[in-house]
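Consider what follows.

. . .
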Amino acid sequence: VWASNDGVVMIKDRYVHTGNTVVIDHGHGVVSLYCHLDEYANIEVGQKIKKGKPLGTMGMTGYAGGYHLHWEHRVNNIQVDPMEWTK
C-alpha cells in the first residue's frame, strides 16, 4: 500500500474497527485513510511523506472479512470518493 499523495503522517495506530490504520494529512483539510493493514512500513507520526512511499501491506486487521484495503479520503471531515482524486 502506497501513499496516494504528498503529506504528513497524522496517525499510525491500531483500532478495533479499522485495524492497523495510517492517516495522512495532505493539507487544506484533505486527509486520506488506509485501514486494515497487515504490517506498517517504516514510517512515523509527524513524518513528511511523498506520493508513492510505502505505508504498509494489505491485510485484514480490525473488522475485516478478508484481505483488502479500506482507502478513504475526507475533505473537511466529509467523505469523498478517492477515485475522483486520482484522475
